[in-house]
TrEMBL record, chain A:
Belongs to the ABC-2 integral membrane protein family. It is found in: Cell membrane. It is a multi-pass membrane protein. GO terms for molecular function: ABC-type transporter activity. InterPro entries: ABC-2_transporter_component (IPR051449), ABC2_TM (IPR013525), ABC2_TM_bact-type (IPR047817), ABC_2_transport (IPR000412). This is Transport permease protein. Keywords: Cell membrane, Membrane, Transmembrane, Transmembrane helix, Transport.
UniProtKB/TrEMBL annotation, chain B:
Keywords: ATP-binding, Nucleotide-binding. SUPFAM superfamilies: P-loop containing nucleoside triphosphate hydrolases. GO terms for molecular function: ATP binding; ATP hydrolysis activity. This is ABC-2 type transport system ATP-binding protein. The keyword Nucleotide-binding applies. The keyword Protease does not apply.
Automatic annotation (TrEMBL), chain C:
It holds the Pfam family ABC2_membrane_3. It comes from Lacibacter cauensis. InterPro entries: ABC-2_transporter_component (IPR051449), ABC2_TM (IPR013525), ABC2_TM_bact-type (IPR047817). This is ABC-2 type transport system permease protein. The chain crosses the membrane at residues 20-40, 178-202, 223-245, 257-279, 291-310, 350-368. The lineage of its organism: Bacteria, Pseudomonadati, Bacteroidota, Chitinophagia, Chitinophagales. Its main location: membrane.
Length: 384, 248, 372
């Protein structure tokens, strides 16, 4: 290349860059002027991470139970007291007949009924044997299972205390430790999940909608007649949302650490980089949707209604992916949030490095390139 | 003569925070006239008109439209007026016929009236073939004429037109003004804002707003005489030069 | 009343003229309802286990084979060092570590007592907890077998024993689908309904057609009703489709009858659509409306009691759920579909929902201003 050509190319580049930044500036001004949207965009993740961080837990506790005590002796009284004292149960109702059980379940508040037969204490004393019947409301099988287990454990503890437990020979003791989350806090699991969800949906929805909005209003045409390349016009629209998302990532991480007390055990730099990568994936997914949607309403339905539940259910933070049937395990692979959730969990909580998450990082990068290429290609075709 | 006045405006004012968009304007509009409401962009025309239509609450001053008070009887006013805004506002995803049906129905016209009137308008605009086409598919000029027809579909006493000819070609503008004259002949009072000064010549009387105030109000001929100008354009320029507010 | 008829006609025409959105409204819930419930399985199985065996004795091998044959566990690594096992956990290739210390067998036989160590990945606390509980119970079984090898059977003195018998009502097969499918249907219905109305009025604001309406003598209440009715009907159609799929794909027949569901859904939809309209009257652009409705939807869905139990939430969060229409409908669905609750049983939820519907819709009418 001759030096002269070189300078020309350079000048051209410089002009293109200036154009690009003036577009980005215009987009930033749009967002800055609309204070209400800005406020929601930045405030929403804060509120959500706080609410979900504190409120969501897979643990089952404070469940309302009903007791049908047909014995009403000292033994049943102390067993009931013990159930009530455990953090899992609140004795809500004392029933007087078997028939009332169904009615109590049907009103919907009671999750478990404990039936103590007559002569409970007598039987324990004389026959060394008594029985307790547990009836669980299995309309939520998960809760039913867990509560039956918990109640059995409480009853067994009670049994161990009343019999002076004799030490048996050949005993295997088991010591259990909980790694990463010894207090079993729900936030350790849900913070990475909510983070993935908020970043994905907000970024995807916002880019998809702003672009479709310009299409709808006809202002897109004005920009496309400018000398800037159409792809650049579209990408310039995504840049401000990338900046906003960076602020959101910062506020989510700060809240996780200081309000929810979820530690960042791994490298902060790696965590932030991965979050930015995921933001880019979401933005490019938004671009892709905007290239397919004709109206804001359609864009919204695709980016919100169609993405929301699959993200909640197939990214692994609500339901373990290994439990799913094969086709769903396959489908879960195309959910970007799944990979990000694994990364955040690994880096933030397990404290591992890039060596442990390189595969997931590579997959997200692949998704980014795919979405971006297809989106830009589609825009080109549409615009010609 | 009081009954002759269909719109009375007395020191009508609208403030948005510290900004006074419309500053104590006073004027009357007579029944059956074509009243041109002129002003540069940002002079406050649209705001004033929106107050008269009951779309915007005045800050102070008095005004009546068709004998109704703009503060308390805005819903009665709406029964007596038609309105066409600068933003084209028919439903683009409804057909020509369906739009007419909708607005006829909203104003409580009978089915027979709607049917007859729709046929009349379609014929008049030579739109019979487009009756079942979506409004969105029509060219802008046709849409504007259609919007005007819909605005006077229910035969109101007054029709407010907010820059009705923005963006259309001279021929269509001409046709549009023919439609306005026809409506005026049928006894409808026309209240029209525009910034085409040649259109001002078509009006019976013209008011010119500068910086939220009415600076001049008379017939075009009298105004030209008063400002010693050959055209309304010159009159306007002389007045507009005084403006301190910049249009956008 | 006649005005209302014309307004309704307009709304219906507009809806049916947009096949793209209509397709999404019907297709999306159908597809999601067919796919997503299969993902919902909390049952802990296939727990990935890494064993650190420093003993390599007969007993340690026996124990490991007993664990793997239980069906709950999947042995993913069998190493001699704890760090190797920990790496498996870090790579998500193991959920639990069982550490068998050196001379485990010797201690058990000679000293009558030996100790095993379990370490569970507790990021998902429940999984760690339940997994280790299963593992402990298998070890207990193993312990019993070991004892039997050394001690004659009848040597045990009879011990006080409380026998626990448990049964599961309403869903004895513990089928998760019975619980998830109606719940997911509620979520889909809510999202479709609220989102549709949330952007409807604001769309007219953005295009400018609302100004033309505002300058007519149309009554506010008529305008809002005309927006409400078509989406209400669409909602009921989506519900019907959903119930049909529940029947065809999952064999779910509501024990309490369809009538109860429809009666409740009719009021529920009014409340949810009213909320959407309310958002619409506040928002200046469709973008804002979508953000607000997205924000609310996320809270409604995640705090609706379908995914996590409401009882387990902190008190303030339980208060939020009282204002969450989704939590009422999920509750009602569960009661009607599985427990056979009838209208009398859901009086309370019905009353609350009717109150929501009235308040939200009146609020929307009041907040829709024809004059600025």
């Amino acid at each position: 290349m001759k030096p002269q050509q070189h300078t020309q190319a350079k000048q051209k580049n410089g002009a293109a860059r200036r154009q690009f930044f003036s577009f980005v500036k215009k987009e930033l001004l749009h967002i800055w002027r609309d204070k209400r949207t800005l406020f929601i965009l930045l405030g929403m993740p804060v509120v959500q991470i706080i609410i979900f961080g504190f409120a969501l837990t897979n643990e089952v506790k404070n469940s309302k139970i009903a007791v049908l005590d047909q014995s009403k002796d000292a033994a049943t009284a102390s067993l009931i007291a013990e159930l009530n004292a455990s953090r899992y149960f609140d004795v809500e109702a004392n029933l007087t007949s078997y028939k009332e059980i169904e009615a109590a379940f049907k009103k919907g508040k009671i999750k478990l009924a404990v039936l103590l037969p007559s002569q409970f204490a007598e039987d324990l004393k004389h026959v060394n044997k008594a029985s307790v019947q547990l009836i669980a409301d299995a309309s939520d099988p998960n809760v039913a299972n867990t509560l039956t287990n918990y109640a059995t454990a409480v009853i067994m503890d009670y049994q161990d205390r009343i019999t002076n437990k004799q030490r048996l020979p050949y005993s295997i003791n088991v010591e259990t430790r909980m790694l990463y989350n010894p207090q079993l806090k729900g936030a350790y699991n849900f913070v990475p999940g909510v983070m993935a969800m908020v970043l994905l949906l907000v970024c995807t929805m916002m880019t998809a909608i702003t672009i479709v909005r310009e299409k709808e209003m006809g202002t897109m045409e004005i920009m496309l007649v400018s000398p800037m390349r159409p792809q650049m016009v579209v990408i310039a629209k995504a840049v401000p949302y990338f900046l906003l998302s960076s602020i959101n990532i910062a506020s989510i991480l700060l809240l996780s650490v200081f309000a929810l007390e979820v530690p960042i055990n791994g490298s902060l730099l790696l965590l932030v980089t991965e979050s930015l990568l995921f933001t880019l994936v979401s933005l490019s997914l938004g671009l892709l949707i905007s290239s397919a949607a004709a109206s804001q309403q359609v864009a919204m339905f695709i980016s919100l209604v169609a993405l929301f539940l699959p993200t909640v259910m197939l990214s692994g933070f609500m339901f373990p992916i290994e439990n799913m049937p094969f086709p769903l395990r396959m489908i879960s692979n195309i959910v970007p949030a799944k990979w990000f959730y694994i990364i955040v969990r690994s880096v933030m909580i397990k404290g591992v490095g890039l060596a442990a998450v390189w595969k997931e990082t590579l997959i997200l990068t692949g998704m980014l390139l795919f979405f971006l290429t297809v989106a830009i290609k589609r825009f080109k075709i549409r615009l010609q | 003569m009081a009954s002759d006045k269909i719109i009375t405006v007395d020191h009508l004012t609208k403030r948005f925070g510290v900004f006074t968009a419309v500053d104590a304007i006073t004027f009357d509009v007579h029944k059956g006239e074509i009243f041109g409401f002129l002003g540069a962009n940002g002079a406050g025309k649209t705001t004033a008109m929106r107050m008269l239509c009951g779309l915007s609450m005045p800050t102070s001053g008095k005004a009546t439209v068709a004998g109704y008070d703009v503060y308390t009887q805005n819903e009665q006013i709406k029964k007596s007026i038609g309105y066409m805004s600068q933003k084209f506002s028919l439903y683009e995803d409804l057909t020509v016929k369906e739009n007419m049906q909708l607005y006829g129905g909203i104003y409580g016209k009978s089915n027979a009236f709607i049917k007859e009137k729709t046929a009349f308008i379609l014929e008049h605009l030579h739109l019979q073939d487009e009756a079942n086409k979506l409004v969105g598919s029509l060219p802008l000029g046709w849409k504007q004429k259609l919007a005007f027809s819909v605005a006077i579909f229910h035969e109101p006493e007054i029709v407010f037109l907010d820059e009705p000819t923005g963006g259309v070609d001279p021929v269509t503008r001409r046709e549009f003004w023919n439609m306005i004259y026809q409506a005026a002949d049928n006894g409808i009072t026309i209240f029209v804002t525009t910034h085409y000064m040649d259109e001002a010549e078509y009006c019976n009387r013209v008011s010119i707003m500068v910086d939220g105030k009415v600076e001049a109000l008379d017939t075009p001929a009298m105004l030209k005489q008063q400002y010693q100008s050959a055209t309304m354009d010159d009159v306007f320029l002389k007045l507009a030069r005084k403006a301190t507010r910049s249009g956008d | 009343m006649r005005t209302l008829k014309f307004l309704l006609q307009k709304e219906f025409r507009q809806i049916f003229r947009d096949p793209a959105i209509l397709r999404i409204i019907f297709m999306m819930p159908v597809m999601q309802l067919i796919i997503l419930p299969w993902a919902a399985d909390y049952e802990i199985k296939n727990i990935k286990l890494a064993v650190t065996d420093k003993d390599h004795s007969g007993y340690s091998k026996k124990l490991v084979s007993k664990i793997t044959s239980s069906g709950y566990f999947q042995l993913t690594s069998y190493e001699s060092s704890y760090n190797a096992s920990l790496e498996k956990v870090e790579d998500d290739e193991a959920d639990l570590i069982l550490e068998i210390p050196a001379s485990f067998e010797k201690q058990l036989v000679k000293e009558d007592e030996a100790t095993l160590f379990i370490a569970g990945n507790a990021i998902n606390g429940v999984k760690g907890n339940l997994g280790s509980a299963y593992l402990r119970s298998i070890i207990q079984d193993f312990n019993r077998e070991v004892r039997l090898e050394w001690i004659q059977l009848p040597k045990f003195s009879p011990q006080t024993q409380i026998e626990v018998r448990s049964s599961n009502w309403f869903n004895p097969l513990m089928n998760y689908k019975y619980f998830m499918v109606p719940g997911i249907l509620v979520l889909l219905l809510t999202m479709v309904g609220a989102n549709l109305t949330a952007i409807n009025i604001v769309k007219e604001k953005e295009i400018g057609t609302i100004e033309q309406i505002n300058v007519t003598p149309v009554k506010k209440v008529h305008f809002i009703i005309a927006k409400l009715v078509p989406f209400w009907i669409l909602g009921l159609i989506v519900l019907t489709l959903g119930l049909l799929i529940s029947r065809l794909f999952y064999g779910i027949l509501p024990a309490g009858g369809f009538l109860t569901i429809y009666v409740f859904a009719a009021v529920y939809l009014l409340a949810v659509l009213g909320l959407g309209l309310l958002i619409s009257t506040y928002a200046a652009t469709q973008q804002q409306a979508m953000l607000i409705s997205f924000f609310l939807m996320m809270i409604f869905v995640l705090l609706g009691g379908l995914y996590t139990s409401i009882d387990s939430m902190p008190v303030w969060a339980q208060w939020i759920t009282r204002f969450n229409p989704v939590s009422y409908f999920i509750d009602v669905m569960r009661m009607v579909v599985l427990k056979g609750s009838g209208l009398a049983d859901i009086k309370q939820q019905f009353g609350t929902m009717a109150l929501f519907a009235v308040v939200l819709n009146s609020w929307a009418v009041l907040n829709y201003r024809k004059r600025s």
